[in-house]
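About this split. The held-out portion is used to measure sequence recovery: a designer receives only the structure tokens and must propose an amino acid at every position. Recovery is the fraction of positions where the proposal matches the reference. Here is one held-out target exactly as it appears in the evaluation file.
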């Protein structure tokens, strides 16, 4: 069981390290979204995706370790979250302290990452709303009836009788 705890701690430390690397990337992403620099956004998103792929692999590794711990402890893996594992380590104070400290640190890192990503999500949603507004505005100006007045030569007159003086009368109408 001690080797499983050490393995779990190692995996969690690696996950924490990746999430700590994601925070400045997400903050940089915020600046890029404000500047609307699409090329830089693509570059940062690719960098972010690489780290997320690593975090996903570590997540699968963590799940396997917890499954193995469940077999050793004769418990379902779903019952073994970090808080319950910390409680189970009452007779191993050093491991309990390491896991507890790591748990608290992960909570802080994840909270910060969630906050920054929420900010980015709001910026993206605002940008999409502006794009939709602009698209609707462009469509409405194209369909405006004021631009569809033509003279007998099929030239647009923009709602004005071109070729006639302001006070003249067109007898053909």
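Reference sequence for scoring:
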């Amino acid at each position: 069981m001690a080797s499983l705890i050490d393995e779990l701690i190692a995996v969690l430390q690696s996950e924490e390290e990746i999430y700590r690397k994601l925070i400045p990337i997400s903050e940089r992403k915020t600046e890029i979204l404000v500047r609307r620099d699409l090329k830089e956004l693509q570059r940062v998103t690719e960098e972010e995706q690489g780290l997320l792929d690593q975090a996903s692999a570590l997540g699968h590794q963590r799940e396997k370790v917890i499954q193995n711990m469940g077999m050793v402890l004769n418990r379902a893996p779903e019952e073994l979250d970090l808080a319950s594992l910390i409680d189970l380590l009452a007779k191993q104070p050093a491991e309990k302290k390491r896991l507890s400290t790591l748990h608290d640190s992960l909570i802080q890192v994840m909270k910060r990452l969630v906050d920054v990503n929420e900010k980015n999500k709001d910026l993206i949603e605002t940008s999409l709303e502006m794009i939709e507004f602009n698209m609707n505005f462009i469509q409405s100006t194209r369909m405006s009836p004021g631009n569809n007045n033509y003279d007998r030569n099929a030239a647009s007159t923009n709602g004005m009788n071109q070729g006639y003086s302001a006070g003249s009368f067109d007898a053909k109408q």
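Annotator remark: The helical segments are 2-35, 38-73, 82-88, 93-142.
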